[in-house]
Automatic annotation (TrEMBL):
Keywords: Allosteric enzyme, Glycosyltransferase, GTP-binding, Nucleotide-binding, Transferase. The lineage of its organism: Eukaryota, Fungi, Dikarya, Basidiomycota, Agaricomycotina. This is uracil phosphoribosyltransferase. InterPro entries: PRTase-like, PRTase_dom, UPRTase/APRTase. The keyword Manganese does not apply. Its cofactor is Mg(2+). Pfam families: UPRTase. Its EC number is 2.4.2.9. GO terms for molecular function: GTP binding; uracil phosphoribosyltransferase activity.
Amino acid sequence: MSNTRRHVLSHPLVNARLSQLRQTNTNSKDFREGIHDISLILGIEASRDLEEESFEGQTPVGPFTGTTIKPKVGLTPILRAGLGMTDALLSLFPTAAVYHLGLYREKVSLQPVEYYSKLPPVPPIDTCFILDPLVATGGTACAALAMIIDWGVPISKIKLLAVLGSEEGLNHVHAEYPELEIWVAAVDPTLTSDGLITPGLGDSGDRLFNTIRV
């Protein structure tokens, strides 16, 4: 996929952090911290074009013209792995509303299944950041996007943030939502027959919350 709506971070710090996340011997504490750090950079980069509003203020020395972020930002982490990205985005947008979406991928069909959503009747936000560490097949991201759009947030006001995506998954999302802005730290070439990104970094939810079965 070649389009101006997909942004892949190209930064030595991100590459080094992601390399640490990929390793099997990285423990849950270090994995959580790595996801947080990469998510923070994703959030900073993805918010470059947010509209600003000016105000007049006073420093100890003299008056100044400052700015605030004008749109009301909402965060939508996809449970459960999206929780690992939420604190980083809240550090950038401390007053943001957080709307959790419960979606899991059925193991045989690899299709997304919704199990939790408590979106209010009318969206009280202007911009929505969907948080999903891994975009593998793209099915879960597309399901979340459909829910947010049906809720009433236009695609032009939605940004998808991911730590890692597959070419196939990102192509799938782009085909369904060509106007969507996607921010991803890195892209891997292929999926396994089970729909896992390869080389990938494993199951991000299990690694975040130390629930890996051995």
